[in-house]
């Protein structure tokens, strides 16, 4: 396990509805880092409704905080492994602001997620990383993660999703 400087000064805490503005800010910063600055269409209202509303939350967010400043986040939810017969923790997004990298925030978030996975009966954590993101790939490998080259992400959205569902052309799928 890598040892990062100042890792002890990072506090990981569960986000609340009051954190939605900073969560959206971090999502937008992640999109810019991943070279898709205009791709975020999620709104504060979406995050409030789906993560902090009256029903079962669709996701959970953990925040990395250093000296009272939110420096990163992990956006995750549970899936299920048919082969393992157990829940899995799926990490949708992990992001630490560039000026705070290498100081333990990413490691603290990953440790918190690993502990949550085990507490929740998960035997696996799963996430994706862009093939050009060498620093993240190296970081994940130092944690002992396996990068599965043979698996490809498949995505169906927009008009093709609507067409597959049998909706008439022009109707929004989501």
Please outline the helices and strands.
Elements: E1 10-14, H1 20-33, H2 44-52, E2 60-66, E3 69-81, E4 86-96, H3 105-119, E5 125-127, H4 134-142, H5 158-164
Report what the structure shows:
With 174 residues, the protein is α+β, with helices and mostly antiparallel strands. Helices cover 31% and strands 22% of the residues. The chain contains 5 helices and 5 strands, in the order E-H-H-E-E-E-H-E-H-H. It has helices spanning 20-33, 44-52, 105-119, 134-142, 158-164; strands spanning 10-14, 60-66, 69-81, 86-96, 125-127. It has a 5-stranded mixed sheet with strand order 1-2-3-4-5. The longest helix has 15 residues, at 105-119. The radius of gyration is 17 Å and the shape is globular. The model is unreliable at 1-5 (pLDDT under 50).
| CATH architecture call | 3-Layer(aba) Sandwich
Record field, number of beta strands: 5
Number of helices, counting only DSSP H or I runs of 4 residues or more:
5
* Inertia-based shape: globular
CATH superfamily: Gcn5-related N-acetyltransferase (GNAT)
In whole angstroms, the N-to-C terminal distance is: 41 Å
The top-level CATH class is: Alpha Beta
Could you name the ranges where pLDDT drops below 50 across 5 or more consecutive residues? 1-5
| Order of helical and strand elements | EHHEEEHEHH
Class by alpha and beta content: alpha+beta
CATH topology: Aminopeptidase
Write out the strand line-up for the largest beta sheet, numbering strands in chain order: 1-2-3-4-5
Radius of gyration: 17 Å
Percent of residues in beta strands?
15-25%
Helix content range of the residues, please? 25-40%
Q: pLDDT average, as an integer?
A: 92
Largest sheet descriptor: 5 strands, mixed
Count of separate structural domains: 1
């Amino acid at each position: 396990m890598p040892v990062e400087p100042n890792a002890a000064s990072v506090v990981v805490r569960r986000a609340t509805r009051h954190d939605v503005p900073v969560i959206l800010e971090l999502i937008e910063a992640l999109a810019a880092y991943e070279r898709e600055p205009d791709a975020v269409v999620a709104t504060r209202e979406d995050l409030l409704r789906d993560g902090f509303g009256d029903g079962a939350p669709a996701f959970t967010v953990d925040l990395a905080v250093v000296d009272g400043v939110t420096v990163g986040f992990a956006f995750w939810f549970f899936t299920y492994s048919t082969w393992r017969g157990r829940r899995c923790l799926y990490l949708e997004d992990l992001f630490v602001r560039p000026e705070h990298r290498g100081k333990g925030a990413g490691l603290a978030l990953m440790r918190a997620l690993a502990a949550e996975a085990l507490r929740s009966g998960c035997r696996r954590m799963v996430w994706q990383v862009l093939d050009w993101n060498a620093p993240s790939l190296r970081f994940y490998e130092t944690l002992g993660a396996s990068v599965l080259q043979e698996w490809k992400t498949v995505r169906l959205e927009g008009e093709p999703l609507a067409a597959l569902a049998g909706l008439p052309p022009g109707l929004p799928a989501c």
